Protein 1
Amino acid sequence: MIDMIFKHTGLLSRLLLRRDRFRIPLWMIGIGFFTFIVPVAFTELYGTQAQRDVMAQTMENPAMIAMVGTHDLSNYTLGVMTAHQMLLMTAVVVGLMSILLVTRHTREEEEDGRVELIRSLPVGRLSNLNATLFVYTGVYILLALLIGFGLFALNIESMDLEGSLLYGATLGATGILFAGVTALFAQACETSRGTIGFSIAILLIAYIVRGIGDVSTDFLSWISPLGWISKTEVYGSNNWWPIRLMIVVSLILFILANYLNARRDLESGLLPSKPGRKYASAMLQSPIGLGLRLQRTGIISWAVGMFLIGVSYGSVLGDLDSFFEGNDLMQQMLASAQGYTVTEQFMSMIMMISAIIAAIPAVMSMNRLYGEEKKARIEHLLVRAVSRTKLMGSFLVISAINGFVMLSFAAIGMWAASISVLDEPLSFGAVYGMGLVYYPAILVMISVAILMIGYQPKFVSFNWLYVFYTFIVLYMGGLFQLSDWYGKLSPFGHIPKLPIEEMTWTPMLVLAGIAVVLSVIGFIGYNRRDMKC
Amino acid sequence: MSVLQIKDLTKKFGKFTALNGVNFEVNEGEVFGFIGPNGAGKSTTIRILLGILKATEGEVEIFGKDAWSDAVELHKRIAYVPGDVNLWPNLTGGEVIDLFVKLRGGNDTGRREELIKRFDLDPSKKCRTYSKGNRQKVALVAAFSSNADLYILDEPTSGLDPLMEQIFQQCVQEAKEAGKSILLSSHILSEVEQLCDRVGIIRHGQMIETGSLNELRHLTRMNLLLETKEPITQLHELNGIHAITEKDGALSFQVDTEQLDTVIKHVSQFGIIKLESTPPTLEDLFMRHYEKKGQKEQNQGGNPND
């Protein structure tokens, strides 16, 4: 009987470890790295209690609490500060790791027909599911220990052993919990996309419900598993009961997933997959319509993300002056310009960062053209009455609009948050203008992508290096005291930094001109080369 | 009148020569079978015809226009079905068909519905749930519901079941009756034999034979089954006799077509009781070329393209 259900779970676990031998360590290293680097950085940046108290004040506004959760702000030690600002965010990342990896080994495996192959061998019916849950439970226990002892090993005064272990355990328990959530949706949904979609929706809902709860009614924080994370009060009162609660819920989820898996047929789901459209809408029937449809989810998610970036930066504007006082490092990072408030300097800096981030979805949107080619779907369009110019043009239009929308959302988000925290808020036009000046730079980034796709599509990813370079040089340039010309290698370095610099049209027009020229050259190349097939 | 003409077509990918001086043409209203082993250059030829790849040398004309520079204009009159159909996982089959038909221009909803029914396709399902055969049906429905003048079909039935294969053959017949021209690349020789007026065989990027099936058969051997009153003697000594086997008192052997007359004269002396002759199948023909070239190939090494 046990054989019927669980036979070879161990063997499958080993297969799974073999398949994830790089993935698991990479996630762990990534999560570990960011967890360890932050308290180290905080020690540098906020060495004195006075500095941290200023920070605590900054954090004491609804927008920040909604973002990072609650903690004991009256005793803002380095440990408390790290836990407060990092734990919830890291937990969300761990949750995401669970969702992606567990889906990969459950529903995706089933969807691709590999579970069928495995099940045709003398292997138990629930072995695959339980091998996945077993391996990932182990992985998260390891992660908990790694983070726990790692943080303790940093040897920071306010980070004691118990708190550090609780920090790790919180992350581990969140991982196990979301492994359970994903395992459950892997039974319910017929596709891996659906599984990931529903699980991420749960993660986001948990995050939002907790956010609302933290700033208004505490009750809402209690029903969200992510709300329990702040309740641990790591490095403060060190509450262990949320961990126990998470383990209990995880066990229930595991049992439920097993029960559902045992009841259903292979490759079926419990949620009915609703039939799609029989006919294409008028919108879809063109290359532009198709491109938009394919990128719809991505565009919407990025727009929401950009808006949130804007809001979160905007919400700290009110406390900046006191915050920067005595913080040499931060002041060094801002271009010190006489006659402007720290707030204005900070806004101009943040707008530039937001614009660089906004370039990412825009370039992704353009690169999609090559993505379609790699997946051998571009031929369906080219063998019909669609010219290469029209095809590339359609993706360019989407990409250009994409960049504009992203930039707008970031600026609108920042403005919306700034009016609630600033005594003398800037006008909408002023804030929006600060963002929009960067549009020509985004167009240049898109045109570089076009150039690559037109001639050397293999190297299309190198564009990301350029974006990364831009970010490092312009954001950290002041810190590293790089000379100006490093920044001038990027289109973003030529944009006037409103409001601390005066608006000049020449660089804007030159950049737009460069974008046009590069695009035209790219189009010519695209019309001449072989399609990959 | 030829609708499609390929002259001395050469295609190189870096140092590798995929096509080396390919020549053939497809006439108006005919079904041309394009056969050859994997990696022989069938799909490369077809992709050049469609303007997806650019010819290194040679002329490729469809309806008298250049396949590369007039691609978009030409594609309004061409319908294409690839052998490996990759579709967007989050669109439904129905949406993809509509998109394809719309992009080509022209719209015949009646035909679309009829074909969806005949091919037994559920257009409301997302493409990610389709099997290979169903994805192929999507491409077939989109192709045959368009009112094209030339159909380019690249192993279009590789995932279809026998029932659907039959429906596909009907569709090709109907298109032919309507005066359309069809280029059919295929592995399934019985399908080619049934549908095609003329055949071209490609191997290692070169056309090794082109002509009507009848013409090609002359180049090869006839299968004979013979029962005589007296045992036949001296058969071995005649020219052009191959693969003699004896079963149940009857002799079965192959004869080179040009030696047929001499052989019949010889065997008639022994009192014929029964004589059956079958023309060579395309498979015989194909295999003969394959074997002949296969021996050479050992010195040349494998083909890097699949």
Protein 2
Amino acid sequence: MTIFRFALLRSTRNPLTLICTYLMPIALILIRPLWAGGNVGFFADGGFALLAMLTMSSAYLMSLNILADKTDGAVIRILAAPITMRRYLTENLLSCAVPLFVQMGLVSILGMVLYDWSVTLSFAVFLCYTILTLASVAMAFAWHCLFKSKADSGAGFSLVLFLTAFIGGVTFPVTVFPGLLEYVGVIFPVYWAMRGLRAVLETGVMNNQFWIGVAVMSLFTVAFLLYGGKRRIV
Amino acid sequence: MRNVWAPKTWFLLCHSAGIGLLFALWLAGGGIEGSTTGFFLLLILTVMALFRWRFPNLTGTVAIDIVACIALSATGGDVPFALALPLFAAMYFGLHWAVFAGLYLFFDFNPLLVSVLGLAALAGLFLGHWQRERQEKYNLRDRSVGRYFELESIQRDLSVALARVEQMTVVAERTRIARDIHDNAGHEIVAAYISLQTARRIMTGENPDALELYDAALARLDSGANKIREAVHNLSAVTFLGVEALSEICNKFPACQADFHVYGDTSKIPMYIWNMLEACLKEGLTNAVRHAVATRVTVDLDATPHIVRLCIENDGVIGAKNSTLGSGLRNLRQRAAAIGGSLSVHAGDTFRVVCVIPIKEEAPQDDNEAINR
């Protein structure tokens, strides 16, 4: 797990990553109005929607190391050592996901303590955001494989974040969009996370809607990993 | 630009367009409000398509797509149209059993669905045949290039072997000359010198001038005999040739014990065959080290008046699992065939290389007798 360890240490050198990944989720859960239920400002699901967007941004920032290795040629030097491409990618992606898993665990526990979340809701939040983390990391990885510079990748991903926030049902409920635009958001994993969580918040149980959301996010993860794994990063 | 519009590219484009069309169909059918199953199926088809793109050999996974389509068709709507996508892929991959998926039409007959599935299957079939035909041409080209390089390699080996045979022939001829001088002229001169020395002892009352001249002649004869001895020594071969060369190679084999046995009269084996046998032995021993974990190698050389047979057998059979011959053995087989012989390989409990070469009667024999003595 040498690559995992060093990738983890490397990600903590960037202050922005440090704030987004390690501080913001805890900070969010401590802001009580965000978790009071209903819409908060522009955000349809308050803290849940903000946490989903934060997860996507953190996954992007954490996985920037892969793009950095690709652009500065470090990956060639790494692969000159007896390390397979699969191991390099697996450990790098794990180093992106594990800190977020821990954050989601803390958020679920703090939610139970601070806001009297039921065990079902806490577990649903943990599961949903864990799968969303995986999907986001996989998506960011596939996204990085498309670009040769950090600037292009960052510009493109900011557009994706913007679209996700607007038509993915994060800032506005998708029902406010006219015609087919209402359904285009399904191509973003966040849409399914919000849909699943909303179902649990409304009914109090993990019903079919929730599990469909989890299954779709898992399929997104596999699809993005397959796409990213096929692209050459050397 | 050659591969841009290859059948594979067309397949990927058509497949992606198919997924796009199904997505549009799903949106037109009411999107998420209409059917979550439709989107779920679309995602499964996309993941499976990416999976086959990532692992091109796992084409059989198209069965999963077909099963998913048929299983989710029960939910109604336009879901059965999704069957066109795996049918297209299956036909492209040459999985003709997938036409049985069409049996679904017996349960849900719809002329439009029949047309879509038929067109998808035909398009897949066409692209698949195009791809296979193209692949066959590439394979043929690769085989031709492979044969060309193999022939080049054999040519290089033969050039080296020719130079070696020339060198060995020169050495053999020098050995024969040295032997002739030593056995014939050398012995006669030494015998004459001894006779003259004996005669000198009984020549006591002769003319002193004549005796002086006689002694001078004896001294010159002695010097001549010494020079002949030196010449014979210089002419003699310092390298091993023929059976001695094979024996020396076996003795110096460092990896394991190599036993060398000779049967029959090897004096009639011509030089070009020795060269071939030497190459065979070196290749056999190299293979025992490189491709097998041999603990013992046995080398048998059988010489008869008409053929010579060299058998190299090792007890390490790791390399024997691969039935194809390496380039070294292939080249040797070609060289053996060029001189009318054969080289065969047998992989069983042991790994055995047998080289049989006929001895042509018109081949000169004097050289070989000299070197095999």
